[in-house]
Amino acid sequence: MTDTTAEDVRKIATALLKTAIEIVSEEDGGAHNQCKLCGASVPWLQTGDEIKHADDCPVVIAKQVLSARPKLHAV
């Protein structure tokens, strides 16, 4: 297994958040923003940030990683 730094984890989480949401067209001409991972969605007029993801969705974990403050290590 490779050594992964905290910065590497943050980069992966950021990439996941940027790629997890897609715009899905509907047959009636409408559209919605949908998570590719858990399937949760919101109408087109709402942003992907407003999606209520499943509790075990990787997007939820990625958001937690990015909102966590880095811990300072005592020397």
From TrEMBL:
Name listed for the protein in its UniProt record: DUF3222 domain-containing protein
Species name: Rhodopseudomonas palustris
